Amino acid sequence: MYPNLLDQKSRQVVEMSSEYILMSVIHNLLQGECNPDLRLLSCSILAPQCEKDRVIKPCRHVCENLRKTCLPAFDAIDMAWPYFLDCDRFFAGEEEGCFDPLAKLRGESELAVEDLLTEEPTTLIKFTHHSYSKMVSILKKTASRCPHIARTYSIGRSFEGRDLFVIEFSTNPGHHEPSE
User: Which CATH number applies to 11-116: 2.102.10.10, 3.40.640.10, 3.10.450.40, 1.10.2000.10?
Assistant: First the structure.
């Protein structure tokens, strides 16, 4: 149901958002800590549960517990807790009627994995190995789709003489800003 809790009005807007990109790479940023919990918590904001044409917010206590558990991992990489996981703003108390997006992880549901699969394509980025030329193409294509926040450039050459391309995401790509 759109708009979601971040007021994003379509699936395409969600998939091009910085929140979606961060959610998709957070596992690598945190070296696997707090995942898949963080991914499911993020999904509960980007694609909230609906019932009778009404969005049901995820439970605040779930967010607070996960934040408390995961803050050391975020601190270790000097990264702030994502704003879109603000426990007070985007999550609800049990008295308001909420759902636990991590219940299935704890085995509190008998729903089979097959029941979760749909014919719609997944909205999560699949991490697969690409050839050098394919990776360069993906980096450049991504930057061209978001030119106001992204740019690619080479940071040198590999032993094989290939450019080592990186992609930069920033509110001001190409300009160093302290603490960003």
Answer: 1.10.2000.10
Pairwise CA distance, residues 54 & 151, whole Å: 39
Cβ proximity of 81 and 30 under 8 Å: no
- Kindly report, residue by residue over 119-140, the tens digit of the pLDDT: 444 455 556 677 888 888 888 8
Domain range list for the chain: 11-116, 132-169
Round to whole Å and give the CA distance between 66 and 19.
Answer: 18
Report residue 71: phi and psi, to 5°. Answer: -55, -40
Q: pLDDT by residue (tens digit) across 1-20?
A: 789 999 999 989 998 898 98
